[in-house]
Amino acid sequence: MTQCSRRFAPRTPESRRAFTLLELLVAATITALLAGFLAVVVGDVAGFWSRTSGRLTTEAQARIVLDQLTLDLQSAHFEDDGNTWLAATVQNAPGGIPNWISNDQNPARAKPAALSLSMTAADFSSDANRFGVAGTWLRFYTTARGTNQNTGAAPFAVNASAPVAVSYQIVRRIASTATTAAAARRYLLHRAQVRPALNGTALGTLEAGRNITATAYTRTTPAAGNTGANGDPRTVRAPTLDSVIADNVIDFGVRFYVRDAATVGGLRLVFPANTAGVPANTPLTYLANVPPGGNSSDSFANRMPDVIDVSVRILTEKGADLIRGYESITQTVFAPPGVTPQAYWWDLARANSRVFTRRIVLRAEPL
User: Fold this and answer.
1) Distance between CA 85 and CA 211 in Å, rounded?
2) I need a surface site. Which of 30, 89, 189, 341 has the fewest CB within 10 A?
3) How far apart, in Å, are the Cα atoms of 86 and each of 55, 65, 243, 268?
4) Burial state string for 180-206 with b = 16 or more CB within 10 A and e = fewer than 16
């Protein structure tokens, strides 16, 4: 009995002063398992948050761009006078774009022209479609409510019923007044709008003429009354930072359709397409100076579109940081072995961007 009582006797204070080796190993194992579990959970939550935040940011920007395009294009203006009222140019060589900054820091890591022009995918929303290094330069006249508001010294027109010229285009530039060589370059989508009428000595749409290809709208150098300040006709070609509608936009493209009863679905693709209405990498410019309508015996060339598909590709914030790092002089991102620098640019872009598309029906009846 004495031995049994000793076997189950309570532990003395001296025996409670330290853990056994087995207890320490068990505790360390449990702690390691909990730490690993928490690390996995925290990593998953952080990754989910990053992906969700990037998706929400790109969706918000895309909604702004597509809603504004819808407003402008649904109120596109056309007059049957032989002038060009809508035009689109796929810009795969951005050297002539005012304010465009080429990749002077790392030319080998610039957005590649050879891989940035591919418009032949049948599905317009396909990730394979790319619309040039600088995307599509879209310009036209619109009478959308609210777009004719003007500011500045009198005399000026406010909410005038006359059409105003607008343009959409991507410009790679410094998004601030910084002038240092290390300043980050960003791909910015601009929506430039010309004031409706003369504002003091500055020209407006009425003075610049009713032809979107007129010199006043395509100037690359300043002129009297058309220096390139916000609202000048020259901003159709050389938009200011005040006209930025979205950032981190690395591609912007369009497809034009005209109604054709002989075509399956009733819509015939006219740009970018061959004469048979099949998607093509040419032509690179479309000038609409023929009224909508016509019949299957027409060539359909230069007709004012009845329907336009628009596409915008936007980088997530993470993607924008990666592209800037890849293009910058600091070279914080490198192409993996076996991948060319040009191909890796698009690998980064595709993995960290989203493509948004919308079909817009025009109501541009000829006057």
Assistant:
1) 6
2) 30
3) 32, 19, 20, 18
4) eeeeebbbbbbbbbbbbbbbeebbbbb
Task: Please write the tens of the pLDDT for every residue from 127-165.
Answer: 899 999 999 999 999 987 655 555 444 444 455 567 899
Looking at residue 46, its pLDDT comes to 57
CA distance 134 to 215: 21
- Rounded-to-integer distance, Cα 302 and Cα 300, Å: 6
Confidence (pLDDT) at 55 = 61
Taking a C-beta distance cutoff of 8 angstroms, is the pair 178, 259 a contact?
A: no
**Is the CB of residue 103 less than 8 Å from the CB of residue 327?**
yes
Strand-pair partners of 287: 87
Q: Which of 228, 188, 230, 193 is nearest to 212 (CA)?
A: 193
Q: Which two tokens stand for residue 69?
A: 């395009």
Q: Tokens 């532990």 map to which residue?
A: 11
- Residue 112 has φ and ψ, to the nearest 5°, of -80, 130
Question: How far apart, in whole angstroms, are the C-alpha atoms of residue 256 and residue 309?
Answer: 7
Specify the 3-state DSSP secondary structure of 137.
strand
Query: Over the stretch 162-201, which tens digit does the pLDDT of each residue have?
Result: 789 999 999 999 987 766 666 788 999 999 999 998 888 9
The amino acid at 71: L
103 CB burial (10 A radius; 0-12, 13-18, 19+): middle
H or E element at residue 90 = strand 86-90
Direct distance between the N- and C-terminal alpha carbons of the chain, in angstroms, rounded to an integer: 116
Query: Which residue ranges in the chain fall short of pLDDT 70?
Result: 1-19, 43-56, 145-161, 178-182, 294-298, 366-367
d(CA 147, CA 158): 10
